[in-house]
TrEMBL record:
This is MBL fold metallo-hydrolase. PANTHER family: HYDROLASE C777.06C-RELATED, HYDROLASE C777.06C-RELATED-RELATED. It holds the Pfam family Lactamase_B_2. Residues 39-231 form the Metallo-beta-lactamase domain. It comes from Novosphingobium soli.
Amino acid sequence: MKLTVLGSGTSTGVPRIGGENGGADWGLCDPDEPRNRRTRVAVLLESEAGARILIDTPTDLRAQLLATETHRIDAVFWTHDHADHCHGIDDLRPLRYGRAGPIPGYADAETVRRLRQRFGYVFAGQYGYPTLISLDNLDTVRLCEGFRVDHVQMPHGPVESTGYRFEADGRSAVYATDFSEITRGMIELFYGCDLLVVDCLRREPHPTHAHLGMALELAEICRAGAVVLTHLDKSMDYATLSAQVPPHVQVGYDGLVVTA
């Protein structure tokens, strides 16, 4: 299966707004390196049969779908309800056009509740507009558009985020972002995956996100085949970080395409 990194940045993106004299704040990232320009995190999975699964609807979703020429998705899964992961939900509206029904959507029970509370019109229609997404609890799905779907709840500071394992065409891809602790459940679900896309905010420990050491530890414990680092902040310069990680680990960037 093919995985496209739509966005690879932290919640404020890179560069961050509010630099010196109102300019862009690149931190330690080289502004002349295009792979340092990061939008908010999301990925797109595609099977050999052409089925497309979107994970998260970040605030930069419209630009990401245009940049990757994505005009259709078959389902969407959410990791959690934080703004950088869901507030681009309305950008799915044009992808509803021409469909016989709403786009299938899935999340854990608490995320479903919060999404319905925040974006009721998306899931119920309003003023003559059709329902955009049919939102269901993750516990109701095991197969989706030819993908086997498994999930685990991960600590994300005081809340939780959902980690996913997708299998299709005899291969497996794991998406694990926004976690602050490695649990036994994560190890059991992710073990032996062909591809691991993993949270890696910065080098120093963080109360709600994985840092570089934790990301590499998870990859090693789970014996992941290939690894892509994502959710990177402005301290994580692409070239510098690329020179420091093992050969099977790749620093993610917007538009990166990898095959599991």
